[in-house]
Design the sequence.
C-alpha cells in the first residue's frame, strides 16, 4: 500500500507542478515570435545562431525610417530567467495591442527592437525533462575544471520531476527548521550560539567524489557572465575567455554595427532601474572606468524616477547588483549605450503580513531578507511546488544518515507561475513606451545665411535636444565605435571654406541643450548640410548661397 | 667518411619499420669541407635568407619544404584572413615517430603586425633549418622525435601583402585590412596615406619655415635634427606623406584598420579608450579566431614564441601590472632559466617584462597564450641598433645617427629617399623624403640570416626544455594472498613543468594522468614521501592517478594495490603538455 502511494505521488507531482508553473515549450516561444513577426509594424530577423544551432531572433518594431534612434529590449540572456523572455514577449504583444495610430506615432521617429530569447539553448534544455533551470548555452563545459565534462549533474533523487533541496541530518549541520514553516530551512547564526541540525545541498549525488554535490552538470557557458566588462576568468560558467560564445558575439555585433541603438533595456537578473546607478568619482576616473559618469548617473536617476513611478503597484524591487561579465554593464561601459536592467518581476514585498503573527517581520538571522519574503509569498498565495515537503531517500554518499529531499525549488525565486507575469509585464510595457518617449530627439533650426558681400556667406544653424535623455551617454565620447554628433558640409567645386571644415565632431548633447554651428563659405551655389547622430536622429538640409 | 654515412643510412633503413622506411627522408650527401658548420651545403630547398617574401613566395616555400621532407613537414591552412587568404601553419616533427599531436608542442608565429616583416622569414628559417639538419645533427633528430613545432610565419597575410605592395611607411600597416570608421564620423577608411611621389614608400613631409624647429644635419643631408635651444630652425615637419582627403583638417587620420591585431585576444581585454587598438571584443578578427581555435585544438602546445620588431627584446608577460599576481616565483624561475640563456644566444637583446620595460598591453596575444592557456611564452622584438655596429647605441629610435652612418658606410645610400620638392594641395610647397619603409625596423639583408639563426636557436632551446616525461622506475611487490603493490616514479627531465603554477592554481589544463592498465586495481594513491610512507589516496577512478603537475627536473611517485599478479600490466603517462608515454611493467 505504501509503495503504491509513493508511485502515485511520483507520477502525479510533476504534472501538478507543471500545471501551475506552466512555462511554454520552446516551440510555443518560437511560434509566438513568428506570430508577432507577422505584424505589419514588425520585421523578424535572426542576428545569429546559438552554440546549439538555434536562431537568435530579433523583432524590429519600426516605421518607414529604418535608421531611427532605437531602444533595444533584450531578455533570456541567463537561462535561469525564462520569466524575462515571457515578459519581453508580453511587451511585444502589448505594443501590438495599441491602436495602429498610437503605435505608428510611437514609431514615427523611434524604433523598438526586441530580442526576447538571447540564449535559446538554455530554454531548450530547461524545458525538457526534470524541472531545473540552468544558465548556460549548449556548449559542453568542464565547470569544475577537473578534465571531465558534466560528470556531476544535479539528480532528481525522489523522482518528483524537479530539482529541489537535499537535507542531511548531521551534528555538523548549519541549518535549522523555520519556526513557522517546517518545509523551509534557515541558516543558523553561530554568533548567537544557534545550533544546526541539517546540512543543506542541491538535490544530487557526488558522482565524481570530490566532496561537491551537483557542481558539474550540463549547463554550458552563462551568456550573462561571458561579456567583456569586468569579465571573470577561470570562474564557473564564464567560458574560456570574454565573448567566447556565439550568442555573446551576436549581441555585441548587433550593438556595434547599429549605432542608432542609443538605449538598451534588459529583463535580467540584475537591477539598476529601481535603484539608480551611483556616481563614484574614484572609480569613474581610473584608467579602467568602473562607475557611470556624473552626468550619466543623473540620467540614470531620471530614468529610475520614471521606472519607479510606472511599476509602483509591484512594490519595491530587490537590490541586485551587477556581477562580472554581465551584458548590461558591457552595453554601457564598452558599447557606450544607456543600459538598464530589471528582473521585470520579483517576489512582491507589499504583503499584508500583519494577520500572520508568526511570519518573520524582519530579516531572518542569516540576513537573507528575500528568502523570507519568498516564504511568505509562497504560503500566502499558495504557490504550489515552490516549497516542497521533505521526502526520505536512500543516498549512496550518506549511507547511515537521514537524507530527505524537498524544501525550496530555487527557480521560483525569479520565475513565478507564468500567469503571474501578465500584470508585471503590462506595467513594464508602459515603461518601455515612456522610455522610448524619453530618448533624445533632435530638432534642427533652419540655417541662417548672412551674405557678407563678395560672395562670402556665413551659415549658422542650431540643433536642440528636445528629449529627456542625452543623444548618447557621455562615456560614448570616449569610445571610437560610437558614432558621434557631427556636421558634414558638402560644398560645390567652386566654393571653399574660409572658416570651418567639411567634417566636425561634437560631444554628446544633453537633454534640453542646444549646439550652435557656424561656417564661412566663399562662393555661390547649393550647399548640403548633414547634422545629427544615429543615436538621436540625423537630418540633411540643403541651402542655396 | 662517405662510407660511414652510407652505413648510418643503411642501419636507419633497417631499424625503422619498412613501411615507414619508404617515407623516411634520405640524408642529403654533404661534403665536410663544403658544409659550413650548422648550415647545409646542399639543401633540398635552396633559399636566400637575406630577402623578404610575399604571400605567394611563402606558400611556394611551404610546398617545396613539404615535398622535400614529407616525413618531417606538413603545411595546412588553419583559417582565412579577412580578405580570404589562407593562414598557414607548418607542422614540423618526425612524423615517423609517435603521434605528432601528442608530443609537447612549440608554437611559433610571426608578422601579427604586418609591417614587422622579418618574423615570417625567421619562422620560415626555423622550419627550414630543422628539416635540412634533421639527418646531419643528432640533437635535431632527437628533438623532432620528442617534440612538434607548429610554425605560422604570418598570422596577418592581408596586411603583409598590403605593406609589401602598397605605399606604406615603416610604421604603417601594423593593422589588418578590415575597414572601420576610425574617426567616429560614420564614414569608413576615407582618409588614407597618399604616396605623393608614387615610389611605394610613405616618407616624411617637411616645409621651409622660419618658426620650424628642425634643420638639416650638417653631417648628413638626409637627416633632420632639432635645432638647439636659441638657434633658429629651417623646417617644420608635417608628418608622413599624405593629404587631408575628407576635409576634417587632419591628414591620414582614417587609414584602413588602425586597430591592432595584438589587442584582440582573450586575456584582460579592454575597450579602445583603455587600450588603443582594441575592437569590439576579443577575437573580433578572423585571424585571431583561426589561431585561437588552433591553440584550443592543440592542448599539447606547451611553449610559444611570437615575433615582433623592434628593439632587441626577449619579452615575457604580463602586459599589465595588475596581472603580476599571476606570475608566481616558481613560474618566473622557469622563464628566467630560459630567458637568460636567450639573452646570451641573442647579443644585443635584453630579457625583460612587457608592462615593466616596454609599455602596458591589454588583450595581447602573449598574455592570452601565457595566462589564458598557461603556455610558457616569449615574444622577441627583432632588430636592434646593436646589430649595426655590434655595440649598444647611445640613444633610442629616431634620435640615433647610427642608422644614417650605417646607411652611408654599409648600404651606400640605399636606405633613404632623398628630399625632393612637391606641390601639396593643403600645405603648398613642401619637400618629401626620409627612410624607406623597409629600413630601421626590418633587418637589412645581410643581418637577416644571422638573426634568423640566433632566434631559431632560442626557440629550439625553448622547445628542447618543454617537458619530457620518463618512467624512472617501477616495482611490483607481493603483499601476500593475491594482492600486489605496484610503485612507479615518473620524472620530467627538462626545465618546463607539465603545468605552470598559474595553470595548477586555476586548473587550466586537466591534471596529468598516470594509469595502470591491464590490472585489477583495488586502490591507488599518490606517494608524497616514500621514506615515511606518506600517501594520498584517490577514491575516484583509482586506476588513473591524477597529478596536478610534474615539475621541471622533478619526479612524482604513485602506488596501486592490485588483485592478481600485474605481470601483463602497463603504465601509461598521459599529459596534455607533457606527452603520452606507455611502458609495459615487465620492461621497466
Sequence:
Amino acid at each position: 500500500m505504501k509503495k503504491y502511494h509513493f508511485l502515485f505521488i511520483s507520477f502525479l507531482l510533476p504534472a501538478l507542478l507543471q500545471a501551475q508553473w506552466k512555462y511554454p515549450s520552446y516551440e510555443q516561444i518560437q511560434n509566438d515570435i513568428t506570430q508577432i513577426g507577422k505584424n505589419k509594424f514588425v520585421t523578424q530577423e535572426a542576428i545569429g545562431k546559438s552554440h546549439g544551432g538555434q536562431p537568435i531572433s530579433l523583432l524590429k518594431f519600426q516605421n518607414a525610417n529604418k535608421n531611427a534612434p532605437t531602444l533595444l529590449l533584450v531578455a533570456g540572456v541567463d537561462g535561469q530567467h525564462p520569466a524575462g523572455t515571457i515578459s519581453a514577449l508580453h511587451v511585444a504583444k502589448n505594443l501590438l495591442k495599441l491602436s495602429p495610430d498610437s503605435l505608428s506615432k510611437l514609431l514615427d521617429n523611434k524604433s523598438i527592437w526586441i530580442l526576447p530569447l538571447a540564449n535559446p539553448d538554455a530554454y531548450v534544455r530547461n524545458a525538457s525533462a526534470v524541472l531545473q533551470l540552468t544558465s548556460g548555452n549548449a556548449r559542453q563545459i568542464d565547470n569544475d575544471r577537473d578534465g571531465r565534462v558534466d560528470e556531476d549533474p544535479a539528480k532528481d533523487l525522489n523522482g518528483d520531476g524537479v530539482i529541489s533541496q537535499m537535507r542531511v541530518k548531521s551534528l555538523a549541520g548549519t541549518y535549522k527548521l523555520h519556526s513557522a514553516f517546517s518545509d523551509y530551512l534557515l541558516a543558523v547564526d553561530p554568533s548567537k550560539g544557534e545550533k544546526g541540525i541539517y546540512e543543506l545541498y542541491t538535490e544530487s549525488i557526488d558522482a565524481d567524489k570530490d566532496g561537491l554535490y551537483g557542481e558539474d552538470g550540463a549547463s554550458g557557458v552563462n551568456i550573462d557572465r561571458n561579456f567583456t566588462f569586468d569579465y571573470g576568468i577561470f570562474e564557473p560558467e564564464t567560458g574560456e575567455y570574454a565573448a567566447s560564445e556565439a550568442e555573446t558575439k551576436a549581441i555585441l555585433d548587433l550593438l556595434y554595427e547599429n549605432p542608432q541603438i542609443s538605449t538598451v533595456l534588459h529583463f535580467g537578473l540584475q537591477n539598476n532601474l529601481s535603484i539608480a546607478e551611483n556616481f563614484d568619482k574614484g572609480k569613474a576616473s581610473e584608467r579602467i572606468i568602473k562607475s557611470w559618469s556624473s552626468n550619466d548617473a543623473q540620467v540614470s536617476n531620471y530614468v529610475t524616477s520614471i521606472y519607479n513611478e510606472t511599476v509602483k503597484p509591484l512594490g519595491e524591487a530587490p537590490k541586485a547588483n551587477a556581477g562580472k561579465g554581465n551584458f548590461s554593464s558591457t552595453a554601457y561601459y564598452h558599447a557606450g549605450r544607456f543600459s538598464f536592467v530589471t528582473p521585470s518581476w520579483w517576489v512582491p514585498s507589499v504583503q499584508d503580513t500583519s494577520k500572520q503573527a508568526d511570519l518573520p517581520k524582519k530579516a531572518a538571522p542569516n540576513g537573507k531578507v528575500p528568502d523570507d519574503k519568498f516564504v511568505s509569498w509562497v504560503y500566502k498565495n499558495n504557490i504550489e511546488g515552490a516549497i516542497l515537503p521533505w521526502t526520505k531517500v536512500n543516498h549512496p554518499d550518506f549511507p547511515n544518515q537521514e537524507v530527505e529531499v524537498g524544501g525550496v525549488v530555487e527557480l521560483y525565486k525569479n520565475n513565478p507561475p507564468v500567469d503571474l507575469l501578465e500584470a508585471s509585464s503590462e506595467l513594464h510595457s508602459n515603461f518601455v513606451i515612456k522610455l522610448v518617449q524619453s530618448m533624445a530627439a533632435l530638432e534642427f533650426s533652419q540655417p541662417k545665411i548672412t551674405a557678407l558681400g563678395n560672395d562670402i556667406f556665413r551659415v549658422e544653424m542650431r540643433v536642440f535636444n528636445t528629449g529627456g535623455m542625452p543623444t548618447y551617454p557621455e562615456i560614448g565620447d570616449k569610445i571610437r565605435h560610437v558614432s558621434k554628433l557631427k556636421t558634414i558640409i558638402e560644398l560645390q567645386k567652386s566654393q571653399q571654406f574660409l572658416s570651418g571644415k567639411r567634417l566636425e565632431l561634437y560631444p554628446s548633447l544633453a537633454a534640453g541643450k542646444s549646439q550652435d554651428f557656424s561656417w564661412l563659405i566663399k562662393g555661390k551655389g547649393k550647399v548640403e548640410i548633414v547634422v545629427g547622430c544615429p543615436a538621436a536622429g540625423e537630418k540633411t538640409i540643403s541651402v542655396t548661397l | 667518411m662517405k662510407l660511414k654515412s652510407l652505413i648510418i643510412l643503411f642501419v636507419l633503413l633497417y631499424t625503422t619499420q619498412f613501411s615507414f622506411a619508404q617515407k623516411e627522408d634520405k640524408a642529403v650527401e654533404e661534403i665536410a669541407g663544403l658544409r659550413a658548420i650548422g648550415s647545409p651545403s646542399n639543401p633540398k630547398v635552396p633559399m636566400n635568407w637575406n630577402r623578404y617574401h610575399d604571400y605567394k613566395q611563402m606558400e611556394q616555400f611551404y610546398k617545396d619544404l613539404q615535398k622535400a621532407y614529407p616525413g618531417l613537414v606538413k603545411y595546412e591552412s588553419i583559417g582565412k584572413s579577412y580578405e580570404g587568404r589562407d593562414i598557414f601553419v607548418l607542422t614540423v616533427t618526425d612524423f615517423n615517430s609517435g603521434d605528432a599531436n601528442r608530443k609537447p608542442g612549440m608554437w611559433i608565429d610571426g608578422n601579427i603586425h604586418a609591417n614587422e616583416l622579418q618574423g615570417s622569414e625567421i619562422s620560415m628559417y626555423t622550419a627550414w633549418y630543422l628539416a635540412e639538419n634533421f639527418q646531419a645533427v643528432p640533437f635535431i633528430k632527437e628533438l623532432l622525435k620528442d617534440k612538434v613545432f607548429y610554425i605560422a610565419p604570418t598570422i596577418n597575410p592581408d596586411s603583409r601583402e598590403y605593406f609589401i605592395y602598397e605605399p606604406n611607411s615603416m610604421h604603417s600597416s601594423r593593422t589588418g585590412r578590415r575597414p572601420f570608421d576610425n574617426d567616429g564620423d560614420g564614414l569608413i577608411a576615407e582618409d588614407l596615406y597618399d604616396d605623393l611621389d608614387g615610389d611605394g614608400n610613405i616618407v616624411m613631409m617637411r616645409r621651409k619655415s622660419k618658426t620650424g624647429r628642425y634643420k638639416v644635419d650638417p653631417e648628413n643631408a638626409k637627416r633632420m635634427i632639432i635645432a638647439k635651444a636659441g638657434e633658429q630652425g629651417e623646417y617644420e615637419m608635417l608628418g608622413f606623406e599624405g593629404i587631408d582627403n575628407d576635409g576634417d583638417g587632419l591628414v591620414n587620420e582614417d587609414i584602413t584598420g588602425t586597430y591592432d591585431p595584438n589587442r584582440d585576444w582573450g586575456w584582460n581585454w579592454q575597450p579602445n579608450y583603455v587600450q588603443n587598438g582594441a575592437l569590439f571584443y576579443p577575437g573580433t578578427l578572423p585571424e585571431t579566431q583561426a589561431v585561437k581555435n588552433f591553440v584550443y585544438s592543440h592542448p599539447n602546445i606547451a611553449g610559444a614564441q611570437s615575433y615582433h620588431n623592434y628593439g632587441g627584446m626577449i619579452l615575457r608577460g604580463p602586459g599589465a601590472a595588475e596581472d603580476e599576481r599571476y606570475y608566481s616565483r616558481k613560474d618566473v624561475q622557469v622563464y628566467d632559466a630560459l630567458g637568460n640563456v636567450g639573452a646570451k644566444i641573442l647579443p644585443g637583446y635584453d630579457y625583460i617584462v612587457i608592462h615593466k620595460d616596454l609599455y602596458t598591453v591589454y588583450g595581447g596575444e602573449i598574455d592570452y597564450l601565457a595566462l589564458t592557456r598557461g603556455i610558457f611564452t616569449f615574444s622577441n622584438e627583432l632588430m636592434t641598433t646593436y646589430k649595426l655596429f655590434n655595440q649598444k647605441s647611445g640613444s633610442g629610435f629616431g634620435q640615433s645617427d647610427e642608422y644614417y652612418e650605417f646607411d652611408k658606410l654599409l648600404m651606400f645610400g640605399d636606405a633613404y629617399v632623398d628630399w625632393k620638392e612637391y606641390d601639396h594641395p593643403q600645405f603648398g610647397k613642401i619637400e618629401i623624403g626620409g627612410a624607406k619603409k623597409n629600413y630601421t625596423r626590418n633587418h637589412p639583408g645581410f643581418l637577416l640570416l644571422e638573426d634568423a639563426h640566433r632566434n631559431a636557436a632560442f626557440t629550439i632551446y625553448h622547445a628542447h626544455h618543454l617537458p619530457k616525461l620518463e618512467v624512472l622506475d617501477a616495482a611490483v611487490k607481493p603483499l601476500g594472498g593475491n594482492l600486489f603493490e605496484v610503485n612507479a616514479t615518473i620524472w620530467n627531465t627538462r626545465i618546463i613543468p607539465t603545468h605552470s603554477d598559474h595553470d595548477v592554481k586555476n586548473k587550466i589544463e586537466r591534471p596529468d594522468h598516470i594509469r595502470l592498465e591491464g590490472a585489477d586495481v583495488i586502490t591507488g594513491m599518490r606517494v608524497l614521501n616514500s621514506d615515511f610512507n606518506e600517501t594520498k589516496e584517490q577514491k575516484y577512478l583509482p586506476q588513473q592517478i591524477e597529478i596536478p603537475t610534474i615539475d621541471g627536473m622533478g619526479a612524482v611517485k604513485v602506488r596501486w594495490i592490485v588483485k592478481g599478479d600485474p605481470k601483463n600490466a602497463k603504465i601509461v603517462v598521459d599529459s596534455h603538455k607533457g606527452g603520452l608515454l606507455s611502458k609495459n611493467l615487465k620492461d621497466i
